[in-house]
Predict the structure.
Amino acid sequence: MYMSAPRGTNTGGSNDETVIAILLTLILPGLGHYYLGWETKAVWWMVGIFVYYAIAILLTFFLIGIVFLLFAPVLHLICLIDVVRMS
C-alpha cells in the first residue's frame, strides 16, 4: 500500500543538493533538473528556453519581441520553482 509522507516532511535530497540545483538553474534553466536526475525534463527546459529566446530575438525586429524579452524572467522563475519543488 502506498503511503504518502506527512505534510511538511522533506522527502527530497539534502539542502546542498537543492542549493546546487538552484545555482545551476540560475546559470541555465534545465541544468538543475539534469543535476537532480530528470534528464528528459532538463532537455525540454533547455530546448524551450532556446526556442523562446530565438523567437523573442527574431520578433524584436518587429518590436513585439521586446515584450517577450520582458517576460523571460517569469519563465526562468517558473523553472526555478520547479527545481525547488522537485528537490
